[in-house]
Specification:
Mean pLDDT: 84
Number of strands: 15
Low-confidence stretches: none
Largest sheet: 6 strands, antiparallel
């Protein structure tokens, strides 16, 4: 729900603010005062296109800020995008546009693309205007309205859409394989050759470094063995010698001599020699292991060099290093599996396509059946609603015809008024009433619904009925209506008035909430400009009293 709206330098509005109520809020004022700018500001908050022409003349930037009361799910969505919730638990959305046409959007204080606002506010704000009436004439919009009228349809539609996407993907794959069989076969041969070449070598990650080290040792094996053996003999002594001349033995004797002297300093040095002896023992063990690990196979060097050459051949053809070669290998195997154009593979794929199509058609049938049931219910409900909106002789029907398979089903939906397409048979006023009737039926509650002069072309008793329907709709939604009709304005709990200052050189408008006598005067003005007559004010009071009594009864 929208709790507060602030507008700066948008159109004729220099600085304006409003706090729409939880029920029905109406926005009234003289033509040209700037009522449409209130709706325009909400369109900006929804992420719609920002138009530089909307910036007030002489200003460099226009800005709109809205505070919204949202549920836990919406608050979590804001925090996930790095935004913050204010101290009242509300979300602040800000949108600005410069006189050069550059716009910025902020969600919870965090800069976001306008598309994020569209996504975030999709189920938060719905705007109905003259433009949206025309949208109702499109087949897609009519189908969507029908689907929204019955909660059971949406999961069926989503299930069907997934099945349709699967069938389309498989069918496209089959078509590609059949049409490009020769090219794919050549590609298959190329990939198969490469995979065989790589798999024959079977490279392992990090093998180049290990192999280079091994080759170095093999090339210097005699020198390495001699150096290690010499060092080992000096540490441990000659194996064939009868005398113990090893460094380890000499160090042991020196350590023992120092330890037995009984002097603190010599004892310290004895401990140092003990540590050296321990380290020398570890070196001896490592040298013995090194000598034992040196290759004895005379062909080992030749094998290693051949292996290195084979690996270099792969890195020259497929990737700069072995890691890249291995990655290319795995991707080629995955691609080869998809490029299989053998007769067996194509037959198997055909079976999958047939099975997927069968599943899709079965789900489409369920979707069509659900839509048929919903169409009957919606036709009856809308017909009943428009009868209450002074269209007593009209009949609303939802016709469903079979269409080509698409992501939305096998159905073409058409709204009809008195047996004819609604686009061809309905006037602007009738379209307004039909759209309102559909919204009353479809609305799930908890949203902010904005109606921008959708009561245009309507008057008399029908206007009063529209006011009642809007009041009933506002029981479970926040409803904001821009209107010229006193019969509609009278039913509002909050009355916002947009006034235009004509005394200044440059047009400037202000926004304020009316109450008491001010509201009586505005209703009287809307009744053919009778705000300065006692009769007009009396009629306005009577209208307000009747509306108030209806609201009390409707909410009881």
């Amino acid at each position: 729900m929208l709790s507060e709206l602030a507008i700066h330098n948008l159109g004729v509005l220099t600085s304006a603010g409003a706090q729409p109520g939880a029920g029905l809020t109406v926005v009234t004022g003289e033509t040209g005062a700037g009522k449409t700018m209130v709706v325009e500001s909400l369109r900006l908050l929804k992420g719609d296109r920002a138009d530089a022409s909307r910036v007030r003349t002489g200003a460099s930037k226009a800005m709109v800020e809205g505070r919204f009361v949202v549920d836990e799910r919406k608050r979590a969505a804001v925090e996930e995008r790095g935004g913050e919730i204010d101290e009242n638990g509300e979300v602040i959305i800000t949108r600005s546009v410069t006189d050069q046409g550059r716009s910025k959007a902020y969600l919870g204080g965090r800069a976001v693309p306008a598309g994020v606002l569209r996504e975030f506010t999709a189920d938060l704000i719905t705007i109905h205007g003259q433009h949206d009436q025309l949208r109702l004439m499109s087949a897609d919009a009519q189908r969507d309205a029908l689907d929204e009228s019955d909660p059971a349809i949406i999961p069926l539609r989503e299930d069907y859409a997934a099945s349709y996407a699967s069938w389309r993907s498989l069918a496209k794959d089959l078509k590609t394989r059949v049409e490009k069989r020769r090219e794919l076969a050549q590609e298959t041969d190329r990939l198969q050759f490469a995979i065989t070449e790589i798999s024959t070598v079977a490279p392992e990650a990090g093998e180049e470094e290990e192999l280079a080290t091994s080759i170095h040792r093999l090339q210097s094996v005699d020198q390495l063995r001699e150096a290690a053996s010499t060092a080992l003999a000096l540490i441990d002594g000659e194996e064939d010698s009868f005398e113990d001349t090893s460094a380890a033995s000499a160090l042991g004797e020196a350590q023992a001599a120092l330890a037995s002297a009984g002097d603190p300093e010599l004892s310290r040095l004895s401990d140092v020699l003990s540590e050296v002896t321990s380290q020398l023992t570890e070196v001896s063990v490592d040298l013995g292991r090194f000598v034992d690990d040196l290759p004895l196979d005379p062909d080992a060097l030749d094998k290693a060099l051949r292996r290195q050459q084979a690996l270099k051949g792969l890195t020259r053809k497929y990737a700069p290093d072995l890691a890249g070669v291995i990655e290319w290998w795995h991707k080629a195997e995955a691609k080869l599996a998809k490029l299989d154009v053998s007769t067996e593979s194509l037959e198997a794929l055909k079976k999958k396509v047939v099975a997927a199509e069968k599943s899709m058609r079965a789900k489409a049938k369920k979707l069509t059946a659900a839509r048929a049931t919903a169409a009957t219910a919606l036709s009856t409900a809308v017909t009943s609603e428009i009868h209450g909106l002074s269209m007593g002789n009209s009949r609303f029907d939802v016709a469903i015809e079979k269409a080509k398979p698409s992501a939305s089903g096998f159905d073409q939906v058409e709204f009809q008024l008195n047996g004819k397409k609604i686009a061809a048979s309905a006037s602007g006023g009738e379209l307004s009433r039909v759209m309102l009737a559909i919204e009353v039926i479809v609305s799930q509650g908890g949203a902010t619904l904005v109606f921008d002069e959708v009561d245009q072309g309507v008057g008399g008793r029908a206007a009063g009925q529209i006011g009642k329907r809007l009041a009933l709709l506002a029981k479970s939604n926040q409803v904001i209506v821009v209107t010229h009709l006193p019969q509609v304005a009278a039913y509002a709990q909050t009355h916002v008035f947009v006034s235009k200052d004509v005394e200044k050189d440059e047009a400037e408008s202000a926004v304020r909430v009316l109450s008491g006598e001010e509201r009586v005067e505005e209703i009287a003005r809307m009744m053919a400009g009778l705000d300065d007559t006692a009769t007009g004010r009396a009629h306005a009071k009577e209208l307000l009293e009747l509306a108030s009594e209806f609201n009390k009864q409707g909410n009881s």
